[in-house]
Amino acid sequence: MYQTVQFIHSWWAYIVLFMILIASFNAIIGFALNKEYSATNFRIALFTLIVTHIQLLIGIVLYFSAPYFKMWGEEGVGGVMADSTLRLYNVEHPFMMIVAVILITMGYSKHKKKLTSKPKFKTLAIYYGLALVVVLSRIPWSAWF
Fold it and tell me: pLDDT tens digit string along 45-94?
């Protein structure tokens, strides 16, 4: 089960990263060029929200089925925190990805309350852009290549 979930989580991550990039740049361009907020912009923001939440659910299943999770019992907190690989997979990556999903959710929710295009794009640009930075900071790049 672990290998199947890991495979899905790894490949779905490309979709998530692509959508966060698209949504962030779409919002920045819309804000900078004073574009009118349209149904397409709404769909991009919504689809980004959906794929990140799906990735979070897959990640939660992966976290509890991974061999790294068993290291909490074997090594203890001190042992996990002392090992950079264990710390990345058990603490840093999961925590920061949850932060990124929270940022995306907050940005999506806040942008819906705005009445005009410029504030909508600004809100999305800020929250989705921060989420992009968070995601890029804690992707286990060695596992990607």
Answer: 999 999 999 999 999 999 999 888 888 888 888 888 988 888 888 889 99
Phi and psi at 139, nearest 5°, equal -70, 130
Question: What would you report as the CA-atom Rg of the chain, rounded to the nearest whole angstrom?
Answer: 17
Burial of 78 (0-12, 13-18, 19+ CB in 10 A): exposed
Three-state secondary structure string covering the chain: CHHHHHHHHHHHHHHHHHHHHHHHHHHHHHHHCCCCCCHHHHHHHHHHHHHHHHHHHHHHHHHHHCHHHHHHHHHHHHHHHHCHHHHHHHHHHHHHHHHHHHHHHHHHHHHHHCCCHHHHHHHHHHHHHHHHHHHHHHCCHHHHC
**Residue linked to tokens 């068993």:** 70
Cα dist from 78 to 19, 68, 71, 75, 88, whole Å: 36, 14, 11, 7, 14
What's the predicted TM-score (pTM) here? 0.91
